[in-house]
Structure formats: C-alpha cells, structure tokens
Amino acid sequence: MSVLTIFSGIFCNEASMARDLAERTKFLLVTDDQITDMAAELSGIKKSKIQKAFSAKTSVFNNFTHEKEHSIAHLRQALAKIMVNENIIVSGYVSLLIPETISHLLRICLIANTSFRLELAKNETQLSEKEAKELILRDDDDRSAWTNKLFSVENPWDPALYDMVLPMDEKEQGKALALIEKNLLKEDRGEIENTKTSVNDFLLAANTEVALVNAGHNVGVRAKKGKIVLTINKQVLMVSRLEEELKYIAGKVPGVLAVETVVNQQNLQSPIYKKHNFELPSKVLLVDDEKEFVQTLSERLQRRDMGSVVAYDGKSALDLVRNDDPEVMIIDLKMPEIDGMEILKQVKQVRPEIQVIVLTGHGSEQDRETCMDMGAFAYMQKPVDINLLSQTLKKAHEKVLAHGKSV
Length: 407
Hints:
With 407 residues, this protein is an alpha/beta fold. The longest helix is centred in the middle third of the chain and has 23 residues. It starts with a strand and ends with a helix.
C-alpha cells in the first residue's frame, strides 16, 4: 500500500501530472473536489463553506465559531476514510492533511517561474496577462496561508515539506513523471501492515477530531494503535474540568483504547481556551457609527459567550454580509450615507435568512412599523437592557437554526 501526494502552484501542470501518474501506476486519484464532496456529505456542511478552508481569507467570526478548523477536521476524516486499503494519489490542498506518520508516503511539490505559469495560463484560459498575474498571486497567497495554518510555514514551496520539489519550467513533463515513478519504486513496499496501521491511526485521529469539533472543542489530535493524544495549545482556566470532558468525548469514539491530554501553556500570550457553544449566537454583526457605544456592546456580548464583530458604517456592514456570513445583525437607524433602513432593505433582498434587530435612539413608531414590515426580527430602543437584548439575540439565533434545519 502506497501514498503519493501532489501539491502545486496554479498553472504548473498539476492536473495532467496527477492523471498521467494515476494511469501509469493504476493508483486511485483523489482530488480536492472529491474530498470536499465527501466531507460535505459526512458533515452536513455546505460544500461551498468547506471550500472556504482553502482560502487565505478567514472569516471575522472564526475566532468564535472555529469554522475553518471544523471544515479541516471533516476534510481529514473524508480523506482518511478513502485512504483505507487503497494505493492512492492525492492531489491538491488536501494532500497536505496526510500526516508524516503514514508509511510509504511520497510527497511531491510542483512549481515553476512566473513566465512559465503565465504562458500556461494564456494557453489554458482567456485571461489577460494582468488578470493571470493577479490570479497566480491570489492562489499563491491561499497556498501560503494553507501551509502556515497546517505547519506554521509561510513558504508553500519549502523543500522541508516535501520529498521532492520539481521545477516544471526546467523539466519536461515526461521526465518529471519518470523521476516520480523512479522514486516511488525506491520505497520499501514490504511492510504493508505498517502502512495499514498508520492509515488506521490517521482515520482514528480524524474520527476523534470530528467528535471533538462537533462538541465545540478545538485541540490537536494524534493516534497510535488505539491511543489518542490530545494537545491543548491555549491558556486554560479550569484545566482538570476541560481534560475530563475531552477524555470523555474522545473515549466514546469507536476504536479508542486510551486517551492522554497534553497541556501546553508556555505561551502566555495565547488566547484563553473557549468551547464553542452552538446554542448561542456566535456570528453577530453590530452596525453603529457611535464607536464607543458599539465597541462596549460587543465586549458585553462576548462576555456572555456571544461572538460579535463591529462595523461603523453601512458600506462596511454590507461588505461583511457578502463576505463573512453573519447570522444576526444589530443595526442603528441613523447613520451617514447608508442608513439602517437601507441596510435592512438590502440585507433582506440578498440574505433574507439573516435576522436583523433594529436598535436605535432616534426612531419613531412609524419607523418601527416600517422596519417590521421590511422583515426586521425586532425593534428596540436605546438605552437597552443588556439582558433583554441577549434574550432577543438568542431567539433570533433559534430562528436561524430552525431555518438551517429546514433548508
């Protein structure tokens, strides 16, 4: 049983190299698209959301939701499931999710200089040279963020991450294929059982990680012959209670024989560990041009374990709606340029599932009626009781959850 991985810059012939290698070796070829499909099916998360894990841009809400980490856990699980009992070629971002503990693993990186990549882009697409350059830069940024996320390595082509780095602008594709095959055959193929054991360890660790993220936790997970090691890299206020909960969750995963926890609290600047509570709103967007008021409100909500971010004007708020998927919004009515009424109107046109709470100190009864007719979840007056606002947010979040289950 053998595993070959290919990670590449865009316009470096990755797809054709992977296809040719699969034909030559008769290995199963697995791509990002296949694994995200499988991860979406396993998790119930939309494929488009899982694919965001590959982007350099992380949602402003991720510190509260850990959605990127959640997606990566499900990608690992899908990949581990498909690797069992297969000779396999894994091509794309997901290739870097395979741990080095896998026996008979050959890691390949394909890269080329910019002129080679631009020429290939011209042949494969209708993009202008400027557009192709911008695409290459964006893709390189995404891949840099990916390796930094997984290995704390910003250079995605760092030779330390691979067994072979092939400069495609210097090698003909046929010679590159032959070189990979030669190195693949050099691997010792005698210890099949070791490979199966390491793949089973990968699958057990992935299943355990999914069980933990589904319970709101975010810790490192390793497995060896049924023993799970959990690593906590953040500051913990009540260590023993957290360890007990983690061990209980991991211990219920089929195949887990023992669980050990390791707490690494050497970095005093690391954030405080917080379990994500799925029952509380964690993607709240506050929109108000009164900066001191809205910052204080955000802090008060976060102390109640509700994740919130702030926008000080309508344009910024609408940009966040397009790019960061807030679930609940609290908006003021009186703001310069784009006021609260217009924000409410546009949000309900493009994202009607977002629940909008109007919180204003200047509104009238007519404003209240207009906002409610436009689809606002609630209309409240400043100053507001924080407990009443919290309860309203929770009810709005419940409506979001109900909508998600019905879709």
